[in-house]
Amino acid sequence: MTIQQIKYVLVIARCGSMNKAAELLFISQPALSNTIKELESEVDITIFNRSKRGVSLTNEGTKFLKYARQVYQQYELLEEQFLDEKNRVYTFGVSTQHYSFATKSFIETVKKFDTQEYHFAIRETKTFNVIRDVGEGRSEIGVLFLSKLNSKVLQHYFDEYDLVFDGLVDTSAYVYLHRKHPLANKDKISFDELQDYPCLSFEQGRESSVYLAEEILSEKAYLHSVTASDRATMLNLMKGLNGYTLCSGIISEESNGDEYKVIPFSEDGEHMNTNMKIGYIMKKNHILSEVGEVYIKELKNYIKRS
């Protein structure tokens, strides 16, 4: 078994097609197919089911892929660690729920690596995509939150993708709205006061459920609701529709602008506040890269200053 064969398996699993994988790997489809058959013969399992529609992992293949990802990630870290410093190419990816502080911390991280070449990526995306990106090795770190409502469901996904969660901060819900919103001058805002205005949330696609929502108190019944796919649209909806969202209160004004305010959510007997634990996920037993360590430090520093 070779590192090259492991890489081929990872690419095929991601593409779901031998032909597409061959194009990405710049080899012929027959050569790729023969290489995988040789690997399957060596390890004495069938990794892929083949059909006219493409390929899919067998049960044994799914187990093989889980360990293959870990091996390949460690190989990449080893290669990165011992490349000549002058010629080192830093690679690093973060997937995050729509948090401005996560993006701001990423910016500060990139500034610290004055190298000839680097390949960095940040993806503000849906909750399930954050988990999948880290699980499949697309990103080294994922930033999201756990609550009493979603923790069991998300932990199931963490176990499925062999991930661990490390908390950064605990916070209660805040109402995030435009400074010209009719409620913007209040010290606290109750659930009943919000009912006349649209509750804004980030869409979660086909996997949508209250357990994957990026907003705290997502299980509540809102009379008016609007979903958006990105942070810029969300901010425009706040301004144009007097919309609001429920968040952690940790906001980067530099990223979002100073037109918006966070105001504590006021609980009552029927609508209690809820704790949210913001943190990050990564692969189990994963050793953070140098860039990853700096990014986590930047996250902690930003939260500490907030």
UniProtKB/TrEMBL annotation:
The keyword Cell inner membrane does not apply. Residues 1-58 form the HTH lysR-type domain. Keywords: DNA-binding, Transcription, Transcription regulation. GO terms for cellular component: protein-DNA complex. One of its GO terms (molecular function) is DNA binding. CDD domains: PBP2_LTTR_substrate (cd05466). SUPFAM superfamilies: Periplasmic binding protein-like II, Winged helix' DNA-binding domain. Belongs to the LysR transcriptional regulatory family. PANTHER family: HCA OPERON TRANSCRIPTIONAL ACTIVATOR HCAR (PTHR30346:SF0), TRANSCRIPTIONAL DUAL REGULATOR HCAR-RELATED (PTHR30346). This is DNA-binding transcriptional regulator, LysR family. It comes from Eubacterium uniforme.
